[in-house]
Each structure stands twice: as structure tokens, then as C-alpha cells.
Amino acid sequence: MQRCGGCKHLKExxxxxxxxxxxxxxxxxxxxxxKKYYHEHTDYFKKQRKKFRDDNPEYxKKYYHEHTDYFKxxxxxxxxxxxxxxxxHLKFIDMIHHSKIADNHRCYDxxxxxxxxxxxxxxxxxxxxxxxxQCEMTLDFGVNPKKISIQRLNxxxxxxxxxxxxxxxxxxxxxMERIT
Length: 180
Fold this sequence. Notes:
Elements (H helix, E strand, L loop, with lengths): L1 E2 L6 E2 L4 E4 L2 E6 H13 L1 H14 L5 H6 L1 H18 L1 H16 L13 H10 L22 E5 L11 E5 H6 L6
Antiparallel strand pairs: 1-2, 3-4, 5-6
Helix pairs in contact: 4-5
């Protein structure tokens, strides 16, 4: 079962089109509906894009290519700044994002899924210590065996609140098939 990005219903895998070895996020029916709507309103969308490009020349491809270095440096500076201001928030947002990607083929209810307040509560409840080895976890963004990660206790279930704990990366990878 997979959740459609268009109608938000859970549907069978066969209801989704395979495109470049991945399943699309919209079911075939929603995809066809989107294509039909776009085809019927093509002129409107072209006018909107042209108007936007005329009003905002800084969004043109030419402008972007002329200022590529600026955009790369600006993005890196902002990310580094956010890491310094609130590393815990940024780390949790990244972890939740990657968990949702990993769970795209698992069925779950959004209200049961992990969220930032839940992870923050776990972080303080576990006293910044790994669930398994009790080492102090770090908020590193690079490669570090003691950096924080989300571990599912049962790998058959998605990242729901009753199935997740915070562990260091070393324990998470070494206990991958462990069910407690």
C-alpha cells in the first residue's frame, strides 16, 4: 500500500505508474487528471511563467548561471548559520525527512508518526544518551559513530512514535535487525 500525493488515499502498488525505476507519488488516476487540467490550461500557465520571468529577471537560467558561485556560497552560509543557531532543530528536521523517505512504502497514520516535539522529548528523557550503549550522542552532521540517529525497534514497522528510540549511529547500524 502507498499513499497517493494527489488524492491522499492509500492505494495498491499497481495503482501507481513506474517511471525510471521508481513509483510516482501520484496514482495513475490523479496523474491523468493533472495532465488533462494542464493540457486544458496550457496557455494560462505559459502566460503566468512569462509574467513571472519578466517581473523577476533574477530567476532566469541565464542569471543563475552567471551567479552560480554566489548561490552555492549563499546556500552553504545559510546552512552553516542555522547549524550554529539551533543544531538540534535542524538535525531533527533532517532525520524526520529521511525517515519519511525510508517509509514511503510502509503504511502509517500521520498523527502517530515521529515529529520534532516527540524527538525533543526523547532527547531529554534519554539525557542525550544512546538507548543501547548509553554513550553521549553528538549532533554532528558529518561522519561520526556517536552522532544521533533514529532507530526503529521493529524494522517491519514505520518510524512511528511507539517504535522509535534515539541511538548513536554505531548502535543503529550494528543492531539493524534487532527486535526488542
